[in-house]
Amino acid sequence: MSMTLDEYIRLHRKESVKSSDFVTYLYKLMDEKKMDAPTLYKIANITKQAYSSIISNKSIPTLNTLIKIIFALRLNNRQCKYLLKKVGYTLASSSIYALIIRYCIENEIYDLATLNQYLTAYGFSDALII
Q: Which of 66, 117, 124, 130 has its CA at a distance of 20 to 30 angstroms from the CA of residue 7?
């Protein structure tokens, strides 16, 4: 089945993703995943107040909170990278902690308990995603 011109442009217009701000990109991802705000913050286990503060740009989310959002939305590596970059974070290849998170994302392991088991096994029990 062929796609419409509008669908083609949306699919291939990469500069819009790179130039959008964090909140705009987060809403785009939520729309793609067909997830509303209450579902997202419930699955991500963040409070409505924390979510509201992030969306209204009153606070920058912590890396911990972003990882929970990334896992709740089941983002792929590229989506994760863009979302993190928009608030100044990265999952650097030089960090075992970051590599564990990237491993889970690249292998579609979106269970935080499993992620935390991996983190604990590699000595990061003080940095669990809770």
A: 66
